[in-house]
Amino acid sequence: MCIESMPSEMLMKIFSYLDAVSLLCVSCVNKRFYHLANDNGIWLKIYSGCFPPKRTIWKVKSVQTETGPLSCAPIQDRKPGYWKKEYILKQMAAVTARVMQLVKPVDLYTGLPSRIKKAIKASGLSWMIVLKDRNGKEHVMEQADLFFKDTSVTIFWYSASWPCLDTLLSLKLLGVTPLLLDQSKAPSKNGPRRRSLIAEYDFFNLTESNVTLGADKLVQLFSLDPGLLVGLWKGKNEIAFVMASLHYHQLLERSTLGSATVQYALPSNKPILDDIDPEYGLHDYDLHLDMHSGSCTYLCGTFKSLFCRKGDIENGYLRLTVVSLKDNTKHVPLIGTVGLCWETDAFKGNVKDCYVMDVTLLDETRKPFWCFSAPVCMELSSKASSLYDYMGCVYTTDYADAEGKVCVELVWLEETKEYFIVSLVIYVSTEKVNNWYGTNY
Fold it and tell me: What average pLDDT does range 130-142 have in this prediction?
């Protein structure tokens, strides 16, 4: 006997033994299964088993009365799917409450949630990429590996069966969360899930329209803004891996509160005006800087009380000097051999002089002001070091987006085999400062 031809009563009996996730999967088979799997009797049993009614006892004129919040209305009085909806909403609310408790504590140095790794685990959050080709076909790739750092998470996707690069038009980066989360086991990739669009990238003429970040013997790296890195096999024009760097600032919101096609809109900052301070918005910035790759951390430091004088505002930017070329007491070394680690199913590698830079700039109230995480590279400068204490090759690292720029100057010391940061300057857009503080610089 075919299961589709079985009587509805028999199917309902079978469905009554399924859990919530299995019921939702069964309802996607066809219209008949959808209506049967929506039965209020089955879902009320699941709801009551997970959320038993809380009975309250009180006295009214020495007579004890019991009541419960669970509706006593007959099941048939409810619309089909009522208890399914109630169960899903209550489960989602319980997960949200757990996550909100975890993100409340804030790190004093970064201004970001200090337990975000636990919050991500509690929400069941993961990330996927969806590649779309010229025929409209979508290729879904689940995350293969990830690394948590102080202020960002780095995600890798690699596979032996990537679609042909020449046929691809776009790539979507999405956050994925299970509709119903079971804390006792890992989220199922086959169960019902919600998607939230984080960013969309143009893959048309990838090698011609994007910046080459670096290369080794096997792969060549291409950087796409914001924070995406694509590794191509040398000489083959085929994808080896994809890497994304996501800053923790509002990461949970961006990864869960959008839809599959529309990004989550970040709330705008409401400026608090200050008529007393003539240099309001120009001082008391804190910078937390991370330079890393994979499990390696090359620099993790905090720089406090950064400022900019009105006379230093030029070309639409505020200049915040973090490390000065002239003050050698603030020059900082990078730990280890700098290189961007990558891997696939069969190979591993390291692209020299490339790394991931995380910038977290806090305003005077210790609120995140400008945050990003992006792969960058060190380029050999044509000029020699002018510092007596640091005689060696000079390298520069530059990053720029719509909100600001970062300029880093490093010197390679051959004797100790390490890099020293001898100059670090942050340029913040005056337009961003004016919108944030309500000023008019």
Answer: 94
